[in-house]
Amino acid sequence: MKYISLITWTDQGIQAAKDSPKRLDQAREMGQGFGVKIEEAFMTMGDVDMVCIVDAPDDESYARFGLRLCQNGAVRTRTLKAFSEDEYRRIMNGL
Fold first, then answer.
1. What predicted TM-score, i.e. pTM, was given to this entire model?
2. Mind telling me which Pfam families this protein's record contains (predicted)?
C-alpha cells in the first residue's frame, strides 16, 4: 500500500534542522521493523517541510510507524493514502 506523508518540523525539529538528514536515515531504518519503506523523500517549500512516498504492508503497520516517528518530537505528519493508477482505474470503472 502506498502513502504520501506530509511532514512539518516542530519547533524542536527546526532548531535541529541540520540533523534532518540523519533523522531521515533513522526513520528509514526504523521503518524496516514495521515493514515500512520510505521510497522517496523530498524537502519542500511552503506549508509542508517534507513529503515522503512510503510503502507499507497495511494501514496498521503504517499507523504504528507514523506514531513512532512522531514520538521523538521533531516532526508532525499528515498522511494521504495513495492509489496506484491501476487501482484508480479499477475504482473509476466500478462507478
1. 0.91
2. GYD (PF08734)
